[in-house]
Write a structure and sequence with these properties.
The structure is a homotrimer. By secondary structure, chain A is of the alpha/beta class. The first copy, chain A, folds into three domains: 86 residues, Udp-n-acetylmuramoylalanyl-d-glutamate--2,6- Diaminopimelate Ligase, Chain: A, domain 1 (3-Layer(aba) Sandwich); 203 residues, Hexapeptide repeat proteins (UDP N-Acetylglucosamine Acyltransferase, domain 1); 41 residues, no CATH class. Chain A is 17% helix and 28% strand. The first copy, chain A, contains seven helices and 40 strands. In chain A, the strands form six sheets. In chain A, strands 8-11-14-17-20-25-28-31-34-37-39 form an eleven-stranded parallel β-sheet, with no helix packed on it. A ten-stranded parallel β-sheet of chain A has the order 9-12-15-18-21-26-29-32-35-38, with no helix packed on it. A nine-stranded parallel β-sheet of chain A has the order 10-13-16-19-24-27-30-33-36, with no helix packed on it. Chain A is flat, with a radius of gyration of 27 Å. Chains A and B meet through strand 22, strand 23, strand 38, strand 39 and helix 5 of A and helix 4, strand 40, helix 5 and helix 6 of B. Strand 39 of chain A pairs antiparallel with strand 40 of chain B, so a sheet runs across the interface.
C-alpha cells in the first residue's frame, strides 16, 4: 500500500511542505531512504535529521525548519506518524469464518464477519463481535463476551466469564480471568477461596504478551477504556485501573488496588494491595508502591546499581545509619549544639 | 445450588443466630443483598457490616454482635465462608473421557473417570489419576504422573517427567518441568548443561497462571504439600519449598534455594540462589533476599516511591553517605567528642 | 546409553586416573553411586567428595588429588561434565516429518529432516531448517525463518517475521516477535504505533520458558550468537544483546537498550530504556539500571531484607537523611569544624 504526500496531508490534516505527488511506500526511522517517511518529535534527533535521506518527515512547526526533506506538519507528529504507518502497513486482512480445526460451542454466538483461527476454542454461551480476530489456539471460555473489532492474538486465554470491549488487542500468551490468589488459613495450611467475580475490560485496551489478569474474588476486576498494558504484567483480583492509564512491562499490582485515570507506570514497578493511586500519577520504573498516592505528579525511588565496591559500601553505610545518627546525637549533646528542627526528630531516632 | 442456613450450620459446624429456614442462593461481599451470604473477619468492615442487606454473615463470636443479619458463627469465618462458597458455586461437573480432538499416547494410563479436554496431549507412559481434569491444550509430557482429583487447567505444560500429587490446581500458561538455567563456561561462550532432574509436587498445591517451575539439574525440584504459588512466579532448578508455604505473584527464586514450611512470601520478591530460608518466615512484598534467613519472623526492606524531588534527594543523600560519615568523623576528631559504640565502627567506615 | 571411562577420556580429551574399562551409565551429583560419574569444580565440595560412592569424577588437576574415585582430569570440569551428560543422556530422537494434526502452509518450506509436532502451525512463507524440532502447539508465523538444528519446544510462539539461527533452543511459552509497547499520546489517551520491525536471533541461543521478546518498532530487535536467556525475561522492542551474554530469570529490559558481549546479568534485574551497557559487565541480581554502564566489571545495588523492625528503622533513617545532614551542618557551622571535602558538598545538600 502506498500514498502520495498530498493524499496523506489531506487524510491526516497536515500542512504539506513539498511536492504533493511524492509517493510514500513505507515508514522508516531517520536512517531510511527515498520513498519512505519518518518523524521527528524532539531536538535530540537534529543530527540524524540533517543527514536523512527520507523523502518526507512528519514534524511540528518548530522542527519543520530543520527538515532537509518534504514535511508533513502537524501539532502531534508521533500520533500522525502512527496513523500514516497504520495506513501504509495494514494488518493482514480478516478472513471471516471459522477455521475447520477450530471448535465453537453450539450455543456460542460468533458474528459471521469474525475470523476464528486454527485450533481456537469458543466456549458455551460465548459471544464474539463483528470483525473480531480470534487467533490460533485462542481460548474464549464459557460465557465470555468479546466486543466488535477486538483482536485476540494467538494463544490468548480468556476465561472466568470475562467481558472485553471493542477494538482491543490482546497479545499471545496473555491469560485473562484466571483465579485470583485467594486463600484462607485453615490449620497450618490454606483453603482455596472460590474466585467467583469476573474481569471487565473496556474499549480500546491493549494487553501485552504473557500478561495475566485475575478475575475478582466476588466483584470484578476492572480495566477501563484505553488502558495500555505491556508484557508480563500481573493484575491481581479486584484491581481497578482507570481510563487511559499506561503500564510498562513486568509490573505487578496486588489485589484490590485502585489506580486512577491517565497514570503512567514504569516497567518493573511493584504496587501493593488494597491501596489507591489517584489520577495523573506517574511512577518511574522499578518503583515500589506500598501506600496510597493521591497527589498528581511523578514518583520515584530507585537505588541504581553502582560498581560493586561502591554499591557494597553504600549498603553498609545504610545498615549503619543508626550508628551514624547516634554519633551525631552524642556530639550534639556534648557540645550543646542542636537545631530545633533536628531536635524534634530525636524521639523516634 | 442453594442451601438453608440450618443446612449450612450443620454442614460446617457453625452456631446459627437466625432463622434456619432462610435460603441462601449465593455468596457476596457486604454490599450484596437478600438471599446472599457474606463474611466479616476484621473490625475494619464494621461500617459496611452495619449497612449490609445480606441475609446472613459468617462471623466469629466477637463480631457476631455487630451483624444486623442472621449469623453463622465460627472460629474461622474466612475458611468457613470459603467452604460455603465452594458448596454454593461448584465448578462445572467433570465430563469423564477423552475429547475426540485430544491425543493420548497408547502406553499412557488415563483413569476412566478423568476428563481430557480438547486439543490436550498425553505423552508416552504418562499417568492421569482418577477424576483429574486436563484442560484444553494441556500438555502432559512423556513419563509425567498426575495424582487423583488434580486439575490442570487450559494450556498447562507439564514435562520433564514431573510428578504432581492429588487435589492440585494448575492455572493456565504454567510451565512445569522445563530445563533449568544450567550453563558451563566454554571459551568465551556457554555450553548447555543437560537438565536431567525432575519436579516433584505434593498434594493440595496450587500453581498460578504463567508460573514456571524448572526441573532439577540432577536431583529434583521439590514443591511440598499445600504450597500456594500465585501467578508469574519463577522457581529455579533444585529449589525446595516446604509444606504450606504461600508465595505471592511475580516472585523469583533462584536455583538450589531451600524454603521452609509455612512461610509467607510477598509479591515481587527476589530470592537468590543456594540460600536457606527457615520455617515460618514472612517476607514482605518486593523484598530482596541475598542471604539465608533462619530466625522465624517477618523480614522487609522496601524503599517506597516518593514524590520525584524527594526521591531524587534521598537517593543523592544515600550516594553521599560516605561524605556525611567523613564529616561526622572530622567533627569527632576535632572536638574530641566520640562515643565508644560509634568508635568501634570507625575502622570500616 | 553408557560408555567406559576410557572411551570418555578419548572423546573429551581428558587424562584418566583409574580403570579405563569402568563403565559409566549415568551422571549424578556427588551423592550418586556406582556406575555414575559426577564432577567437582570448587573446594566447597571437598567433604561431599571425600564421602562419594560415585565410580568417577571429572575434576581439574588441583582437585583430582582429593577424589577417592577414578578421575577424568580436565582443565574445565563443568563443561566436560556437560558434554559427558549430553552423551549419556541424549534427547529423544527426532521423528522427521509433519505430525498429522499439525498444519503447514502450502508455501512454507519445511526441511524433510525436521520434526513438526502435534497441533503445530507453520505459517505462509515460513522456513524450517534441517533437523529442527518444532514442538507441540508451536506457532511459526508467516515469514518466520528457523535455522538448522534449532528446537522450538512445546507452545513456543514465533511471529513478526522473526529469524532464529541454528542450534537454538526455545522453551515452552516463550513469545518471540510480539508487538513492542509503542504508544503515541493522542488527546488524553493513546494511539497504537504500528510495530513493523522484526526480531533477529543468532546461532546457539537459548531462550527460557515464558520469556517474551518484542519485535522492533521500525528496525529489529537483535539477540546475538550464544546468548542465554532464562525464564520470564522481557526484552523490549529494538533492544540489542551482544554475543554470549547470559541473563538470569525475571529480568526486564526496556526498549532500545543495547547490551554488550559476554555480560552476565543476575535475576530480577531491571534495565531502563535507551541506555548502553558495555561488554563484560556483570550485574548482580535484583539490580536496577537506569544509566549507561561502560566500564567492565561488576555492578550491584541491593538493600536486602532485614528483620522487619530493623528494616523499618533503616527505611525511616533513609527518609530522614535530610534532617541528619542538616544537623551535621549546624554542628559544623556552630563549631567551626568543617572539612574541605565535605564543604564542597554543602551546596546541594
Amino acid at each position: 500500500m502506498s500514498a502520495t504526500l498530498g493524499e496523506l496531508a489531506v487524510a491526516f490534516g497536515c500542512q504539506l511542505r513539498g511536492d504533493p505527488d511524492t509517493r510514500i511506500e513505507s515508514v522508516a526511522t531517520l536512517a531510511g531512504g527515498p520513498g519512505q517517511l519518518g518523524f521527528v518529535a524532539s531536538k535530540g534527533y537534529l543530527e540524524a535529521l540533517a543527514a536523512t535521506r527520507l523523502s518526507a518527515v512528519v514534524a511540528d512547526a518548530r522542527l519543520a525548519a530543520s527538515c532537509p526533506t518534504a514535511v508533513l506538519m502537524h501539532r502531534n507528529p508521533h500520533a500522525t506518524f502512527a496513523r500514516i504507518a497504520a495506513l501504509l502497513h495494514p494488518p493482514a486482512p480478516l478472513r471471516p469464518g471459522v477455521h475447520p480445526s477450530a471448535q465453537v460451542a453450539t450455543d456460542a454466538q460468533v458474528d459471521p464477519t469474525a475470523e476464528i483461527g486454527p485450533f481456537a476454542l469458543i466456549g458455551a454461551r460465548a459471544r464474539i463481535g463483528a470483525r473480531c480476530r480470534v487467533g490460533a489456539y485462542a481460548l474464549v471460555g464459557d460465557g465470555v463476551e468479546i466486543g466488535a473489532d477486538t483482536q485476540l492474538l494467538a494463544r490468548v486465554t480468556v476465561i472466568g466469564a470475562a467481558r472485553i470491549g471493542q477494538r482491543c488487542v490482546v497479545h499471545p500468551g496473555a491469560v485473562i480471568g484466571s483465579d485470583g490468589f485467594g486463600n484462607a488459613r485453615d490449620g497450618e495450611g490454606w483453603l482455596k477461596v472460590p474466585q467467583l467475580g469476573s474481569v471487565h475490560i473496556g474499549d480500546d485496551v491493549e494487553i501485552g504478551a504473557n500478561t495475566t489478569i485475575d478475575r475478582g474474588a466476588l466483584d470484578n476486576t476492572v480495566i477501563s477504556d484505553g488502558v495500555r498494558l505491556d508484557n508480563q504484567i500481573q493484575i491481581g483480583h479486584n484491581v481497578q485501573i482507570g481510563a487511559h492509564t499506561a503500564i510498562a512491562a513486568c509490573t505487578g499490582i496486588a489485589g484490590s488496588t485502585r489506580i486512577g485515570r491517565r497514570c503512567m507506570i514504569g516497567g518493573g514497578t511493584g504496587i501493593g494491595g488494597q491501596i489507591e493511586i489517584g489520577d495523573d500519577i506517574i511512577i518511574s520504573g522499578f518503583g515500589m508502591v506500598t501506600n496510597s498516592l493521591h497527589e498528581p505528579g511523578m514518583y520515584s525511588s530507585v537505588l541504581p546499581v553502582e560498581p560493586v565496591r561502591v554499591g557494597r559500601r553504600i549498603v553498609g553505610r545504610i545498615k549503619r545509619l543508626d550508628v551514624l545518627g547516634e554519633r551525631v546525637r552524642r556530639i550534639e549533646t556534648a557540645s550543646g549544639i542542636t537545631s530545633e528542627q533536628a531536635t524534634g526528630q530525636h524521639d523516634d531516632d
